[in-house]
Amino acid sequence: MSRAEKKATLAFAIATVAALGLAVVYWTGGQPQIEGALLGVGFAGIGYGMVTWANHILADGHHVQEREPLSSLASDRAAFETDVERGGEIGRRTVLLKAMGAAVGAMGVAALFPIRSLGPRPGRSLSTTPWHDGLRLVTETGQPVRAADVPLDGLVTVFPEGLPGSADGQAVLVRVRPELIRAAPGRADWSPDGYLVYSKICTHAGCPVGLYEAQDHQLLCPCHQSTFDVLRGARPVFGPAAAALPQLPVRIDADGFLVARGDFPVPVGPSYWHRS
Ligand code: FES
User: Fold this and answer.
1) Alpha-carbon gap, residue 70 to 84, rounded angstroms
2) Among 17, 131, 192, 264, which has the highest number of CB atoms less than 10 A from its own CB?
3) Whole-number percent of the chain with pLDDT over 90
4) What's the gap between Cα 104 and its chain centre?
5) Domain residue spans in the chain?
6) Fold held by 137-273
7) Which of 198, 199, 202, 220 has most ligand 1 atoms within 8 Å of CB, for mutation?
8) pTM of the entire predicted model
9) pLDDT tens-digit profile of 95-117?
10) SS3 category, 69
């Protein structure tokens, strides 16, 4: 084995050890500095080995080969046979190939380990919120919202009962004159006596939609000025948001409190990840 081939083999061996070390460090809890160093050594070893080997295989300078019958000389054939018999050139290349395969394979195995960091599958948790039938609407302090306490053209931020501050359950309650509402088919009873509830999470990029222009019956997102028509299912009428704010169906219970009739019909939040 030539000097260059020895160097390449050593580089591949070092890369293999570094990759295996990276896997072990990651599996035992991880240490970013050590992981970075091992990753660097691994890639550097593979790169150095491949370049060294390639330089050894490729001859220097320009070479011109005459067009002539491609037959080998008797002396070349004899040399090749000798190599085969004593495990010469072919044997060395096999060692090099195995060393390189081990290094690349070890790096591949090490690269699989971060999959563990992705955590459990989210399941349906991204498509649903804590709202369900029978949950009262409560304020940020956990107080149930009595319908009669909401002023006409007023806005109240509400949460599912027992979960004040809920990130995906936050919603805005707006009270308008019932005769103004242009409910979509099947939603006529979602807003009793003019109480409309929409998700507070903007469908553009997720900012809280907290501004209400009572005169125009429009909800505004302060981040990029998306504007939603409260009377028509909170469909966007201005700005970058492309989807309506999901509406929460509600009713008024026997004690006069506002109560959810179920969850939002579609996932809340930015629409780009769940709609085509
Ligand atoms: S996040 Fe609401 S308009 Fe951009």
Assistant:
1) 21
2) 131
3) 62
4) 27
5) 3-60+72-118, 137-273
6) Rieske Iron-sulfur Protein (2.102.10)
7) 202
8) 0.66
9) 888 888 988 898 888 888 777 77
10) coil
